[in-house]
Amino acid sequence: MTKNTPGLIVLLGSGETMPTSGKTHEYVAQHLPPHGRVTILETPSGFEPNSDLVTGKIKTFLEKRLQNYELDVQLLPARKKGTELSPDNPEIVAPMFEADEILLGPGSPTYCARQLQDSLALHILRARHRLGATLFLSSSAVLAFSAQTMPVYEIYKVGEDLHWKPGLDFMGDYGLRLVVIPHWNNTDGGNELDTSHCYVGTERFTRLRQMLDPNFTIVGIDEHTSLIVDFEEECCRVMGKGSVTLANQTEERIFNSDETFPITELGAWYLPEAGDGIPADVWEKAVRLQQQKEAAAQENGQSKAPSEKAKQLLAQRTEAREAKDWAKADSLRDELEALGWQVLDTPEGPVLEPIKQS
Q1: How far apart are CA 145 and CA 166, in angstroms?
Q2: Are the CB atoms for 34 and 68 separated by under 8 Å?
Q3: Closest by CA position to 224, among listed 138, 104, 106, 347
Q4: Residue 344, phi then psi, degrees to nearest 5
Q5: Rounded CA gap, 14 and 304, in Å?
Q6: Closest among 282, 263, 328 to 8, alpha carbons compared
Q7: Interval 215-266: pLDDT, tens
Q8: Which residues, other chains included, contact 83 with Cβ-Cβ below 8 Å and sequence gap of 6+?
Q9: Cα(121)–Cα(39) distance, rounded to whole angstroms?
Q10: Which helix (H) or strand (E) holds 335?
């Protein structure tokens, strides 16, 4: 029976193709099945004539940075509703049903939210995530998937009055009322202009915050920093150069890189019932294809991802090697092999790969 455990949610403040994000991408890759499939949606930048080049840079980066994982990285041109390349076009979005990771990055948050709202692409994305696929959001996509999205370009570039627009409220499926702000510590304006809080500055963001429902939790993510939400482990992990700020009406808490904290810090949360809120035909197809993937993996002697025990043994082996305790390292390697995993020592660090059954 298919396990209904949601995948990771990765929220990156900026820099999806910068070396500083490599550790986050590596962490995600270690949670993907062997030769996993990564689908990059062009939707956030779909209004741009060169949206394929924008997302193509991400594809090139992942293929080079994660080459040892032999991932299948593909672009999905779900650009605009009412066109041939629509997020409602079944032929365009069908590959999402096979995705082990779905990534959305730079562009316009309001455009992204408008194009994906109630779309077939969003329904499939929600189904795949509930069945274990990782959702990786960066920059504008982080804003778009919030409960309310901040119209950055409209305020910062066009000069519209301060306001919020409805977001996709993805975390609402899990009972969390979050407004997530990337580029939290941006300093592009130098000494002349405050561009923190995703370019709007402290003064304007303070007024924007006063417009929000007080029950929302604000999550500010520094640039080159990621917040990884792990429902299976019931914790959040901060990775990268900066920190993550959680703010509500009464307090503000800061979590630095490499710190972890329980998901309850984001609010009271729960796991939704199976396909709750997802069209029945989409959910049923997603479950059927997931069962087929699991059956094929089992037949090939592969598991979806290393178990917690295997990951712990790998960490202990790494410590033993650093301490030059080769005998212990060899013993731990043998334990991993008994669990069905071989260790590949790569320039980026040790990687677990399932031992193929002959």
Answers
A1: 9
A2: no
A3: 138
A4: -110, 120
A5: 28
A6: 263
A7: 999 999 999 999 999 999 999 999 999 999 999 877 899 999 999 999 999 9
A8: none
A9: 12
A10: helix 326-338
Torsion on CA atoms 42, 45, 46, 49, rounded to nearest 10: -120
Could you give the CA distance from residue 110 to residue 26 in angstroms, rounded to a whole number?
29
Classify each residue of 288-316 as buried b or exposed e, where b means 16 or more C-beta atoms within 10 Å of its C-beta.
ebbeebbeeeeeeebbbbbeeebbebbeb
Q: Can you tell me whether residue 271 is helix, strand or coil?
A: coil
Summarize the confidence of residues 16-28 as an average pLDDT. 94
Q: What is the DSSP letter of 18?
A: S
Residue 308 token pair: 């917690």
Contacting residues for 334 by C-beta, under 8 A, at least 6 apart: none
Cβ proximity of 239 and 258 under 8 Å? yes
pTM for the full model? 0.85
- CA–CA gap between residue 104 and residue 135 (Å, rounded): 8
pLDDT digits (tens, 9 = 90+) for 60-100: 999 999 998 889 999 999 999 999 999 999 999 999 999 99
Which residues contact residue 7 at a Cβ distance below 8 angstroms, ignoring those fewer than 6 apart?
A: 31, 101, 128, 129, 131, 132, 133, 134, 135
Buried-exposed string 218-239: b where 16+ CB fall within 10 A, e elsewhere: bbbbbbbbbbbbbbeeeebbbb
**Rg value, the chain, Cα:** 21
Is residue 310 a contact partner of residue 302, using CB atoms and an 8 Å limit? no
How far apart, in whole angstroms, are the C-alpha atoms of residue 229 and residue 266? 10
Altogether, the residues listed in the chain come to a count of 358
